[in-house]
């Protein structure tokens, strides 16, 4: 579990509530033995989980704060993924599940006496990746975790977990940050210029870590290039969709590309109903207004559903080229567009 750069979690717009909750529990020695950290991707659950793991294993930290000293033997071992009292249970590969054997080994790990720290810590990430047999086996782990065990489940989709797993954990929900707070944090924590911070807060829907990743990877600029190309396709030949699909699939950024372009459907519907409606992609408003005057709403709703299914299923190792070809050709279909007039 390699650490990310240290952040002030109390000022993090998506984590302050979780930090306060856990620090109160620590101060009263009431931290649940099994915690479920649930919420959408990009909210900061991973940052929080890593901070809590570091605290739980640190040999010199205060008993009632989420801080870790960063200097003791435990902190150094954790930083290089070599701590003997920590186990990070993850899928065996992208799109794979966590097998039942891995869960059984994790259960055995928790039963052992800690070697350095005061407890043994298990982090399962994401918990919904457990195979159904693994999930059933994990119930026994929750029922008999071991005297010195601490279990953390991180889940992007907690509703996919067995109800019996959820009921045996104390749940900590992570929600999107307020736009203004996220803008301030991006400026202060990452030095993002005000205009870009405002754009990131809007496009990333209150997800601080996603916004930070977008900034560091230059996705904000890439987003505009994707949108300009996408909005131009209805006026071009089918060959343009096939070429664009091949180029985008080669970039390998479907996890960002598909959701970004999906926002166009909501914008078109808003503009079709009310020309002055606020929209997500306000920097492309003129092009969107022109398309909104032509779009056929029933066909748009049908394509929106197909598009949403595609990006929700993207992690399942789909053939991205074929998926994009289908979606973009349907985006160009004349049944979606009335003649310009």
Describe the protein in words.
The model is unreliable at 2-6 (pLDDT under 50). The protein has 2 domains: 16-173, P-loop containing nucleotide triphosphate hydrolases (Rossmann fold, 3-Layer(aba) Sandwich), CATH 3.40.50.300; 218-336, Zinc Finger, Delta Prime, domain 3 (Up-down Bundle). The radius of gyration is 23 Å and the shape is elongated. 52% of the residues lie in helices and 7% in strands. The longest helix is centred in the last third of the chain and has 20 residues, at 254-273. It is an alpha/beta fold. It has helices at 16-27, 45-57, 73-79, 100-111, 132-143, 163-167, 179-190, 194-203, 208-217, 219-232, 238-251, 254-273, 285-292, 297-312, 320-332; strands at 34-38, 86-89, 120-124, 149-155, 170-173. It starts with 15 loop residues before the first helix and ends in a 9-residue tail after the last helix. Strands 2-3-4-1-5 form a 5-stranded parallel beta sheet, with helices on both faces.
Q: What characteristics describe this protein?
A:
341 residues; alpha/beta; Rossmann fold; 2 domains; 5-stranded parallel β-sheet; 5 strands; elongated
Number of helices: 15
**Poorly predicted tracts of residues:** 2-6
Return Rg in Å: 23 Å
Distance between the termini: 58 Å
CATH architecture of the largest domain: 3-Layer(aba) Sandwich
Going across the biggest sheet, name each strand in turn: 2-3-4-1-5
- CATH topology of the largest domain: the name is Rossmann fold
Report the sheet with the most strands, covering strand number, pairing sense and barrel closure.
5 strands, parallel
Order of helices and strands: HEHHEHEHEHEHHHHHHHHH
Question: What is the oligomer described by this structure?
Answer: single chain
**Which term fits the overall shape?**
elongated
The proportion of residues in beta strands is: 5-15%
CATH superfamily assignment of the largest domain? P-loop containing nucleotide triphosphate hydrolases
Q: Class by helix and strand content?
A: alpha/beta
Tally of domains: 2
